[in-house]
Design brief:
single chain; 498 residues; alpha/beta; eight-stranded parallel beta sheet; seven-stranded mixed beta sheet; 17 helices; 22 strands
Length: 498
């Protein structure tokens, strides 16, 4: 069944955008699909079946889901790396890495959160357990990497006493350990794409820190076609992108299909909460001189965004702290650029309405709020801005677009929706429950257009669709996270089926 193009969907109940236009929204309907689009919808039994029939069997139908922030190759490769997300100390993480076998002459661990550890990472501690095998531990937020002495020698970096590299140095290390053979990389990405389709995903925004145009030309030529992809360009490649005529929305060059398209300029303007480098108005606890780090000065950001806009590129501006968000919004106001602010994890109350006024989407990752709740309560306790302001942004009219930032959080839109709607997991009380949003907004934010302009199940709409076995609008937190996906269709073509 996978790979077949559906001409008819039988007996599905619409649970996402478009439902409100049906005369009897709770009753099963049939859909006719032609040329990759929905051409008719009617109560079950009133349309003549045509072509390949997909049986809905009373399941619930939604527009296909999107993840608006993924580091595709890094996420794909993380499946074969040592998971450190459950470690509670530097000593524990170092011990684990000392016991894992080397692959291609090195060890790589991922997902630790040292902001929650009860001790401090040091070069000496990591060396004691890992010896002469180059060893790399990548923080969950990817903004820091802990290396042993052998890894520092291999990479040609001078080791600090902590063994920890942060921000641009950490990004460079990540780029190097992700620079695997293209055949290995592309097979990993194909596996990732199939896994994403199995969760109802039809598209994503790839913000890998590399020259993504080359990689996606190669993958499109290889026949990777399970997802729609919009891929980003970083400032160090902006001149090349302009010279080669890349414009947001253009199909990747040389492709036989239009599934892969040029995306935005991605610029990282500050650090992260976990590394205590997010640029904030108030200092971090115990360090009056630390307000985080602006990695791109405001005037330089305006110049970058002006050049990108003039060349036809949208912008995706990473801003986590309230100071960084303010500067990013200022830059959008000054340049007239189109695009998103990525993360928006701490936003001054006065800046929240500016997203909608400027037409800037908030590309947010709801799972991060729960990943970081304990760090937020400790590290940002004295900040006056609103942390993870989903409801406040939605109420102000801002367009929310949900994502995972995989590998920071797993690529699973149902987890993102559950975190946004319930603000809890693992049986804990809801965290900042006043920032919960309703399920309809969460579903809309998980489609290509976002919460204010969602994809719809409607005649004329693309047949990017997902059928699930339970009603997401009635699901509890655990049920939403475990949502069983029956069938995923991309322009009517089946990309996942039982």
């Amino acid at each position: 069944m996978i790979g077949q193009t559906a001409g008819f969907l039988r007996a599905v109940r619409v649970a996402g955008p478009g439902r409100e236009f049906l005369p009897t929204p709770d009753e099963p309907v049939d859909l006719v699909i032609l040329g990759g689009r929905i051409v008719d919808i009617a109560p079950t039994g009133n349309l003549r079946p045509r072509g390949h029939v997909v049986e809905g069997a009373g399941g619930w139908l939604l527009p296909g889901l999107w993840d608006h922030h993924v580091h595709v190759l890094q996420w794909a490769l993380s499946a074969d790396r040592t998971a450190l997300g459950d470690t509670t100390s530097a000593r524990e993480a170092a011990g684990i890495m000392g016991r894992v076998p080397a692959v291609d002459g090195r060890r790589v661990g991922v997902g630790f959160r040292d902001g929650l550890w009860d001790d401090v990472p040091t070069l000496e501690l990591l060396d004691a357990t890992t010896g002469e095998v180059p060893t790399y531990l990548v923080n969950a937020d990817v903004h820091s990497v802990w290396l042993n002495s052998a890894a520092f020698r291999r990479e040609g970096f001078e080791p600090p006493a902590s063994g920890m590299l942060r921000e641009e140095d950490a990004f460079e290390i990540s780029r190097r350990i992700n620079a695997v053979d293209p055949e290995i990389a592309d097979r990993a990405v194909e596996r990732m794409a199939r896994a994403a389709a199995a969760r109802g995903v039809v598209g994503l925004v790839d913000l890998d820190m590399t020259w993504n145009d080359e990689a996606w030309q190669r993958r499109a030529a290889r026949g990777v076609d399970a997802l729609r992809v919009s891929y980003g360009t970083y400032p160090e490649h902006l001149d090349r992108a302009i010279a080669e005529g890349l414009r947001t929305g253009y199909p990747v060059r040389g492709a036989a299909h239009d599934l892969v398209r040029v995306g935005p300029l991605k610029a990282i303007t500050d650090g992260s909460l976990g590394t205590r480098t997010a640029a904030c108005a108030h200092h971090y606890p115990g360090d009056v001189h630390n307000h985080g780090l602006l990695t791109i000065p405001p005037d330089e950001l305006v110049d970058l965004m002006t050049r990108a806009t003039a060349a036809g590129l949208d912008c995706a501006i990473h801003a986590i702290g309230d100071l960084a968000n303010a500067h990013a919004l200022d830059a959008y106001a000054r340049t007239g650029a189109v695009g998103t602010i990525e993360h928006a994890q701490l936003v001054a109350h006065a800046d929240i309405p500016r997203f909608a006024r400027l037409g800037i989407a908030a590309s947010v990752q709801p799972e991060h709020a729960l990943d970081d709740r304990d760090m937020t309560d400790a590290i940002w306790a004295e900040q006056s801005a609103q942390a993870y302001p989903l409801r406040a942004l939605a109420d102000s009219g801002a367009n929310l677009r949900f994502g995972s930032d995989a590998p920071v959080s797993p690529l699973d839109p149902w987890a993102a929706m559950a975190s946004a709607v319930f603000r809890t997991r693992d049986g804990r009380d809801a965290w900042q429950p006043h920032e919960r949003i309703d399920i309809d907004t969460a579903i809309a934010a998980s489609t290509v257009g976002g919460s204010t302009a969602p994809a719809e199940v409607a005649p004329g709409a693309s047949a990017d669709l997902v059928i699930v076995d339970a009603d997401p609008r009635a699901a509890d937190e655990a049920g939403l996270r475990a949502m069983p996906v029956r069938t995923t269709l991309l322009a009517g073509r089946v990309t996942h089926a039982p």
